[in-house]
Specification:
single chain, 501 residues, alpha+beta, 7-stranded antiparallel sheet, two-stranded antiparallel sheet, 13% strand, binds adenosine monophosphate, binds magnesium ion
Amino acid sequence: MNSPETLPAQRLRLAELRITNRFATLPGDFYTQLASTPLPSPYLVCGSEHAAGLVGLDPGEFAHPEFIAAFSGNSTLSGSSPLAAVYSGHQFGVWAGQLGDGRAILLGEALAPAEPMGTLELQLKGSGKTPYSRMGDGRAVLRSSIREFLCSEAMAALGIPTSRALCVIGSDMRVMREMPETTAVVTRMAQSFVRFGSFEHWFYKDRKTELQILADYVIANSYPELQGAARPYHALLAEVTRRTAALVAQWQAAGFMHGVLNTDNMSILGLTLDYGPYGFMEAYDPAHICNHTDSHGRYSYRMQPRIAEWNCYALGQALLPLIGETDDVYDALSVFKPAFESSMQRLWQAKLGFGSSLEGDAALIDQLFALMAASRVDFPYFFRHLSSVKTNATHQDETLRDLFIDRSAFDAWQSDYRQRLTLENSDDAERKQAMDRVNPKYVLRNYLAQLAIDKAQNKDFSEVKILLDVLQKPYDEQPEHEKYAALPPDWAAGIEVSCSS
Ligand code: AMP
Ligand code: MG
């Protein structure tokens, strides 16, 4: 997993941020230039110091009226040329045609010294209608903005590639969802917001020139190492496929479910993108569907790897005119399975405290998941506590066995597991340390997000801030925040999250 972020020494005032917009140098058909719609009486809900640090911004700026004006969309940062990008996509497996930034405005990119690519794009989400809004109102509600903000920062702290979130700015303005809700604007950051659907857009319009312009743009700005490749578009597809496979393996290991894995929500950089009705696995059920709107479970936990691969095929189809031969497309896509399987194996191994895999481990892992599913065992709680198992103990670990209905079946598994641990070179203390670095103690459970949202809807943003702080150190013991690591209360099972946002 990534090492924890350290805040850089640089502390820029907002006015000192150097903003440019490379995307705006693409031909006009790729976007519409327009300003955000003003947000009435905006106020700060929360800012992420870590995200600010990525562009060297002083978090002391958060409370300044200029900051709130800029990230509510009420003023334009110097150097920014705001625009909404067009893209298309497959939604729930069906070609949906043109979509685009229906409620997002790309401001441009800022210099990001800590970012391998050197810049991060800043994008407002919920900042008003664009030509791509279709039936939507261009807004995002406070509830979904807080969920996106917290999860972006939580995923980054877990070491999972993701777009980041700088801040949430709220307003008392209401929009209609299932009921009237207050709105907010969340500022996202990523090296690029180009999606698989950005390529599908030009493919389905039969516009090979634009397809190539986009591919060259992505290679030059995000994959410069591929510029000299003999077959750059083949190499691009293979690399995106590899990153996507590695990403979805990390999701599975974290129990993260995206909820809407449409091709327009798939990042060309292999980042987790577009947080909507996502969820973290709690009571383990491989068929779990986190999105209440997904009635057929296309995007259930166990389907995610297959869907991610399906989405890579959709990208491969879109890149076919550039790659030339169908066989070459298949060749690039063949990267998915081995990349996913090797990442997945490595991640499960690490979660179980195995230094390397041995024959028989696959059976041990399968048995564990069958037992966990039968008892709907809490996924993060179980893995975090697994590091306490002692190799040579004479009694079974009570905290763990109490999670299972069939305790004797779990006792048998635990005996086999201990037996397997005797083959490890590390002692119990070393293994515990290593396991605690990959099995988070603090996870953004739906009910924790909901409690923070309930308070925020009453203008108390303290819980959002506490949760952000807790989730920024997910692998650490935080004794003062023990309650955030507890098993969820019974009412948590009743929470439903849908596409409404
Ligand atoms: P999503 O399912 O959130 O990824 O959104 C799919 C498409 O619908 C994207 O093009 C979004 O920009 C657009 N969209 C979603 N909600 C809204 C909204 N409230 N107003 C305008 N466009 C929206
Ligand atoms: Mg989307």
